[in-house]
Amino acid sequence: MTNLEPPTHDHDCVRRTKRGRPPEPTLAWVIPNSNPHAGHCHAGHRAEDGTISLKYKLHETDSTSYAQRTRLNVERADITLIVSQNTDPAGGTLITLEHARKTKKPHLLVTPTNLSQAPFLLRQFIEYHKVNILNVAGPRSSSSPTVYRITFDLWQTTFG
């Protein structure tokens, strides 16, 4: 698969992938592999463990609301990939899933039940929807310790 082309319009969405709380597995994979990235973060580049580095190409919202950042990231992407180690998402992951459904945005939920097929499913999903902008979401590593490794391995297996 070739790299996805950057969008022809200039707004705050990812070019292939994004996360709101770097360093996260998606950015840990896309940056060294020379894939463009962008997205939204909270006012002040706030994250649960401090401040998000300005080296990440994230645009601040005018709010500290996680829900606002989540909604913008879903709405400005072609599809949303949700990676969760739980089959029943909760918290911000559930907000992402519900907003994707509400706005009728295509989304793929990867959980332990479909993890072995996830690289194939993700490639097919991207091709079917002719994706240019991919939103990546999931629980924080602090509440879901294995999600980082699962997501990083998914990127490596799918695109590496």
Please explain how this structure is put together.
It is built from five helices and seven strands, in the order αββββαβαβαβα. By secondary structure, it is of the alpha/beta class. The chain has one domain: Rossmann fold, CATH 3.40.50. Helix 2 runs parallel beside helix 3 and helix 4 crosses helix 5. It starts with 24 loop residues before the first helix and ends with a helix.
Q: How many helical stretches? A: 5
Shape: globular
**Rg result:** 14 Å
Helix and strand run: HEEEEHEHEHEH
**How far is it from the N-terminal to the C-terminal residue, by CA?**
10 Å
Number of strands: 7
| Adjacency order of strands in the biggest sheet | 6-5-7
Helical content band: 25-40%
The CATH topology turns out to be Rossmann fold
Report the CATH architecture. Answer: 3-Layer(aba) Sandwich
Task: Give the biggest sheet.
Answer: 3 strands, parallel
Q: Percent of residues in beta strands?
A: 5-15%
Offer a quick outline of the entry.
Helix content is 32%, strand content 14%. With 160 residues, the chain is of the alpha/beta class. It has one domain (25-159): Rossmann fold (3-Layer(aba) Sandwich).
